[in-house]
């Protein structure tokens, strides 16, 4: 069964990018493809862009999207096998996922990490339970360790704004934040960007190394100024410690990206997945200035989702 939960291969990534660019110019070109099919968008955590873009993408393909905010509108789910359910949980994932699998042709799931149970998170426990019990193709709308639709939208945006026949230098830079933030966006961005064979550098304070599963072969530079030199794209994102799991070690405000940081990168474009803490992660001058691709990334979330849903519909599940 075909699922979309991670970067699979450069070939598939390239196909998804090309399809997304096609849909961007012809959003309803295949509006009959999903006719008579339903996609269930199941949110265990809040969402703005992910929720709306996925609904629009499904409608562009003729599918009926139905949204369930599980954290507010559904029963508290029990995930553990053999649990004695005499406490706060009301419904077991076996039963909930099984039912949802009969209601929908595709399930799209969003679930954040605990940032306390490292083993559970790195095994992507929640989305894995849905995959185990639902019997239906699944799209990850963000999980404990990955955000593949966001990263696909990021690759589309890089493709649109890259110079022809030039491998872009891409820098993923850590930024300060007021609370512990998951690793999913940073992990996926590293996985997709290196997988598409861009020149990727990751820069962060010591102690914020990501899981090596996602950064193998990628250049790590602790000096932010050096990392940013001659960058074509700078992706700004906070994440908490992976080794000292979920903890905040550094809150150095000098890592917040400003125009001064890019004095040696005159052509750099700025990216962020949103939502963003203005003047904490990124300055207003960056977000509202001519370097910013942030709104274009958000728009491309529609076509990333549409490309993936189209791919699943073509998989004859």
Task: Please tell me about this protein's structure.
The structure is a single chain. The mean pLDDT is 96. The chain is built from 12 helices and 11 strands. Helix 1 crosses helix 7 (148-161), helix 1 crosses helix 12 (294-313) and helix 4 crosses helix 6 (125-134). It starts with 9 loop residues before the first helix and ends with a helix. The longest helix has 20 residues, at 294-313. The protein has helices at residues 10-25, 49-60, 70-73, 93-103, 118-122, 125-134, 148-161, 184-195, 212-215, 224-228, 284-287, 294-313, and strands at 38-43, 64-69, 77-78, 91-92, 106-110, 138-140, 169-174, 199-203, 219-221, 233-237, 269-271. It has 317 residues and is α/β, with parallel strands linked by helices.
